[in-house]
Amino acid sequence: MAAHGENRYPPGAQVLVRDEEWLVRTARRAGHPSDGDVLDVIGVSSLVRDEEAVFFTGIDDVELLRPEDTRLVPDSSPYHRRGRLFLEAVLRKTPLPQSERGLALADRFLIDSLPYQLRPAELALSLRNLRPRLLIADVVGLGKTLEIGLTLAELIRRGRGERLLVVTPQSILEQFQHELWTRFSIPLVRLDSAGIQRIQREIPAGRNPFTHYKRVIISVDTLKNIGQYRHHLERIAWDAVVIDESHNLINQGSQRRALAETLAPRTDALILASATPHNGDKRSFADLVSLLDPVAVRDPDDYDAQRDLSHLYIRRTKNSPEVRGTLPLDVWAERADTRSVHCAANAAEEKVFAELTAHWLPAVPELSPPAAGPGDGETVAADPLFAWTLLKSFLSSHRALRATVDRRIASLSKRLLQSEESGFAPPPELPRELDALGRLREATAAFGDGCAPGDSAKLDALVEQLRGMGVGPGSDVRVVVFSERVETLTWLAEVVPSRLGFPADRPDAAAKPKKGQGEGDSGVRAGGAARLMHGGLSEEAQRRCREEFGLGSAPVRMLFTGDIASEGVNLHRECHHLVHYDIPWSLIRIEQRNGRIDRYGQSHEPQFLALILTSSLPGARDDRTVAEKLLLREQEAHRVTGSAEAVSGWFRAEEEERRLERELASGGSVEDFFAAPPEDGGEGSPLGALFAQIGAAEEGDEPALRAVVPSLFGDDTSAFVDTAFAELYADRPEEAIDLARGSDAQGRPYFSLAPAEVPDLYRRLKSLPPSYLKKVADRMLLTFDAGLAKDKLDAARADGATMWPDVSYVSDLHPLVEWLTDRVLVKFGRQQAPVFTTPGVAAPVYLVQGIASNALGRPTVVSWIAITAEPGSPVREMTAVLAEAGVGPGLARTGDPADVPGLHAALPEVLARAREHLAAETGEWTRLIAGPLAEYRARVAEWRQDALPGVTVRREERVAGTADAAEKLLEQLATAGPPLVRVLGVLAPPSSDHHHSAGHSTDYSTQDSTLRSDSAEGRTAR
Length: 1022
What we know:
about 1000 residues; alpha/beta; about 15% strand; elongated
């Protein structure tokens, strides 16, 4: 068993367990000290080849041979191909150390090169953070999913992303999974209701479902049942947890909060994401931040955003200089101002306005008083706020008003009945309100069904405006229509399509499900030309609706949806028209709606339309009273700050709307409401500062630091893959695994293989959706060409039956690359290292890997060195020496080294020098990290001291526990234990009696099979 803090089992090392050979994929400390290290391995020896297993060094006898016992084997493969692949595989398999703070993979994915999207990953890896924990609070549309993907990718490259858990709202589950796979090659298994049922069929009863798959994406609505899943979650440690829309975690005592409190202490990295990260309460926000760092805020009532949180929190708007200066219009077009269309109320609507004005709503002082009413500005509503609920319902539609009235009548009638049964006189205001409700109900009965013009002013205007946009049969124009009320959405989905010329639904395909039967409604209307989406539909119906609206080949042209689609859902791929059929009384909600089509990736100018119902009745409250004013304020906020919250001072849509209604019910106005923002909100306030550009790059800031990642293939992953295929399949991969290659009309290369011929690779893809796996079951098409992959991704959305593309982009993280890397390492013998014969060295040079680790088993320093046995000779960087020695695809083999036993005899002296060098590098890192560790230790002490005065015994215990845990983390992060050194190979001059008879004069390119049509150096299978 390894000593505490010593990582004896680096990724890529081979170990002997239970008399079988295994390749170490990852190693980490177990949860209990007696269990030792947890080794995630794959079988090497014939009996267990390609089998995956997990061993605990405290339980099993795990043998790792001493580096002094390394067998040095001359590389007899053409052009030293086997040795070069081995070195490259070790380089790829070894995690980047904590001392490497630069980004390693920023330019290796299917995304645009936008510096601002790199900054969250840069912050997570910086010395300002002892652990990669942060809250990404960029405004709607900036690409938080891509920023999360970049951060996770960097963690994976550092060996800190093997076990991933992503928690999102149900509405964006597949969208998030799709982005991480198609753009980053990170596969996540989706555990929606269908996914959980599938896993339960596959695993033994009682097995922890979260150990079955290592990288999981799950709905917060599924996982929030903490009672059902707590015992599973408490028994597993994650490398990284992502919680999207994390503002839902703020409320103490909620299921979502309990979930976060269970996950936070059981993960190394924690990424929270939300465009509206707090509710306006400073203490609540400090409580949310405590999930990331329990000691970040000493006083939850008095803290500074920039000083105390900038290492944990980043927020930018579209107006931030680093964003605006790098966004080309073809990836995010400028939005147009919202166009308000005034709709003059018809006779039936004016009758409702008259009833509302006379009996429900106080008279507007500056307007003429109503002709009739209860008098003195009184309202018949027992609850004055309910009068405004009625108005909002009516401004949505008469159908919504009727539903609200019916529910209120039922509620009040029940109260009257209870009073009578109890023998008490009913409250005097109830009969009067019931009478007024009866009149409103009667007024709504006068409306037509909307199938013909004249039944509704807003409906007529909507139909006219949609025609003007070009929506109709034979047109590709799409539009999303928002409404807050399900009754309104259902009605619009029934009547609008036929008025535009789309086929009407058959009677047996009724658009209106019966009460309680929403789960059976597919949401499909007008033969597929329209889609209805709201919370009453099943998960699958909503998922299919979102997917089809983003597919250019789907027949859907209109999406009628509510605010279930206003958070996180992408609707911009095939649509740039949005209609507010009714307007939320919240700037935040308006901004969120607009963000569905006004976001990164929108190539057309987003067009917004709002229907404003107006009344000619003196004193009437119509859409000009509130809605139109809010639209203008949201427009101004977007133009000036890029964020509604920073202007309004309110940070939660529900609270903003509730407070505005109270202001109106007390006789105030929209202007009064915004003239007096909450004490904790607004520009210049402490909480308002949180919605400023915290963490944004300043002018003159250096671009994100890039990591130095050694490679024998010049960072050319395609060349590595080609060479690995040739080596593993004896230059005949076309026959062995049915490998084929080709190019598209533009000459862009791709290749394909038959998954049935490589079942161990296919198993690594099992986490992807079954619908996608069916597409690749017979033939898997892959490409390294980003342009081709992007075109195929766009084509899937435009012409495909699913948004999953036929051709997979291969990044460094793709399962194919990981599989080939493992196969290369497995093929090399146990405790062996290749000897390269090259005239580029005069004396033997040893290639050595050195790794120093912390108590958690994570590398703090990784050194790749070239060293000789001669005392006093310089220790050099390995890849530079390899390049000078000519080790590459052009280095022909020139015979065996002169004295292999002599090379082995020098190992003890070489390894002693290597350990001495690594100790010096480790000391330098220790000095560098000492400052941040000391600073954090002082912060822990101050937090403990400030948190203790006047607290209860229980609170004191919690404070002590938190501080002790932080102290323990500090101890674990420091480098501990002896470093590991490992011999990777030797460069040796050829024997003196060797004659170069053909050597460099022969064209070897034809002797080495390639997978690519070009034979340029570095692109062959050599």
